[in-house]
Amino acid sequence: MRHIASVFAALAALLLLAAPGRAQQSYPDKPVRMVVPWPPGGSVDIVARLVSEKLGQRLAQPIIIQNSSGASGTIGMDMVAKARPDGYTLLINTIPLATNPALFAQLPFDTVKDFAPIALIAKMPHLLVSTQAITVGDMRELLNLAKSRPGRLTYSSAGSGSTTHLSALLFSTMSRTDILHIPYRGGGPALADAVSGQVDISFPSFAAALPFVKTGRIKALAITSASRSPLMPDRPTGAEAGLPGYEFTAWFMLRAPAATPRDIVGRVNQAVTETMKSPDVAERFAREGTEIVSGTPDRAAAFLAAEIGQWAQVIKERGIKMD
Fold first, then answer.
1. pTM of the predicted structure, to 2 decimals
2. Which ranges in the chain belong to alpha helices (H)?
3. Are 31-123+250-318 and 127-223 the same fold in CATH?
4. Each residue of 154-183: pLDDT tens digit?
5. What CATH number is given for 31-123+250-318 in this structure?
6. Domain at 127-223, CATH homologous superfamily
7. Which residue of 154, 162, 172, 320 is surrounded by the most CB atoms within 10 Å?
8. Separation CA 156–CA 126 (nearest Å)
C-alpha cells in the first residue's frame, strides 16, 4: 500500500509540474492586451496599431490596444509591471523607457528588473514643424527668430519627458535658444494645436506629421534623423539646416511583466519577428517613414541598457529637468 501511495504521489507531482508547461504551450488562448502608455494619435499608438493586427493573426488571437496615459508613460508602464506575468499583458513604449529613470527622482517600478524585454520593433525620426502663421522659410530663419525673441516662441509636446519634448529640449539646448514648452496629454493634441496655430512650432513624429505636411497645413523645416527621408527628400536634416550634431530618432520596444515565462516571451518574439518581415507590414511602415528593426529579447535588453546609460549622461550634461 505504501508503494502504491508513493506511486500516486509521484504521478501527482509530475502532473503539477506539467500543468504550467501545458498552459504555456496553449498560449495564447484568449485576447492579448497591448498597453500604450500614451493617448491615441501619437507615435507609440501609431506603431502599436500598425503591428497589432498582423501580430494578432500570427498569435491566432486579437490584440486589444489599451491607451493608459499619464506621467510621461509611467502610469501605463506601472500597470504592466504589476500585471499577471502570463503573456496576456504587453507594453509598447519608446524613449521614456530609457529617460524616465534619470528624469524622475522616484518611479513606482524598476525599469530594468520589473519587465521582460521581448523585441525592439522599429525606429522613427521626428520633424521640426512650424505653423503657417510664422514667417520663416527654413530652420536658420527660425533660429534667428527664436534668438531675437527669447521665451516668446512656443512649442507643443506630448508631455514632459515624451519624445516630442526630448527632441525639442535637445534642439533648444544645442541651439542656445529659449523656447517656451507647452505640454499636452499626448502627441495627438500637441500636433493638433500646432496645426491650428495655437503654438509656434512642434517636433511631432514623422508618421503623425506627414499627412499635415503633405496638405500644407504645417511647414516641415527639418527632419531630426541623421539622414534625409526618401518620403521627403527636399527636407534637410537638423545638422544640414544649421545645427551641427543635432540628431534624434525615436525607437519602439515591446515588453512584458518580469516573471513572464521565457517560452511565452520567445513565442511573442517569434510572432513579432515574422510580423515585421511580412511584405505588407514592411510597406505600411515604409509609408510612415519608419525603419523596421527586429532581434532577440537579449538584443532588446542590451539596447535598452545602452540607451539608459547614454540618456542619463545627456540629461545630466544638458541639465534637463521635468517641468
1. 0.81
2. 2-25, 43-59, 74-81, 96-103, 139-148, 163-175, 187-195, 206-214, 262-277, 279-287, 297-318
3. yes
4. 999 988 888 999 999 889 989 999 999 999
5. 3.40.190.150
6. Periplasmic binding protein-like II (3.40.190.10)
7. 162
8. 13
